[in-house]
Design goal:
Structural class: alpha/beta
Domain VOC: 5-121
Largest sheet: 4 strands, mixed
Protein name: ArsI/CadI family heavy metal resistance metalloenzyme
Number of strands: 8
Pfam family, one: Glyoxalase
Radius of gyration: 19 Å
Strand content: 25-35%
InterPro entries: ArsI/CadI-like, Cadmium-induced_rsp, Glyas_Bleomycin-R_OHBP_Dase, Glyas_Fos-R_dOase_dom, VOC_core
Organism: Aquirufa novilacunae
Shape: globular
């Protein structure tokens, strides 16, 4: 079975060493490449290339979450057991109805607060668990953050037309 196409994700991190330690545990394998300020993992299961760039100023919080679905309940339980032993599980939800589906899942949170969901899909559901009907930040598919760090909002600077690139010019 081919591992292509592979999804690629690149995340900014505030501390590369802490992120490499977390992700080596979470993915169950060492990084494929580690360079100053950069690390990359090439995973076969799930088929994913994920890279990390150390740049604390660009770390984004509250963008949502990342995750992957496993093929069997046995695989989910095996991954959960490993994550428990490594102390990286932030929340467990077994038999929950979230996003109109019955799922078993667990969550792990990386050093910058990026939440990862690992789940096994049982079946579609016609309802959402009332716990997830809330309209706050802990709504479906996001465990509550331990502490939300309020980052300053960036303001878009006014740009003069003469200083911008023309569409299709290839300068950007």
């Amino acid at each position: 079975m081919s591992t292509f196409p592979r999804m690629h994700v690149s995340l900014y991190v505030s501390n590369l060493a802490a992120s490499v330690n977390f992700y080596s545990t979470f993915f169950g394998q060492p990084a494929t490449k580690v360079k100053p300020g950069y690390a990359k993992y090439v995973l076969d299961s799930p088929s994913l290339i994920i890279s990390f760039i150390e740049n604390p100023e660009r770390v984004q919080s509250n963008f949502g979450h990342l995750g992957f679905q496993v093929e069997t309940a046995e695989e989910m339980n095996a991954r959960l057991e490993v994550a428990r032993k490594q102390g990286i599980v932030s929340k467990e939800e077994i038999g929950t109805s979230c996003c109109y589906a019955v799922q078993d899942k667990f969550w792990a949170t990386d050093p910058d607060g990026v939440q990862w969901e690992v789940y096994y899909f049982h079946e579609d559901a016609e309802f959402n668990d009332p716990h997830y009907e809330m309209q706050d930040a802990s709504a479906c598919c996001m465990p509550p953050a331990a502490a939300v760090i309020e980052k300053p909002k960036l303001k878009i600077a006014e740009v003069q037309a003469a200083n911008t690139c023309a569409p299709g010019s290839g300068c950007c």
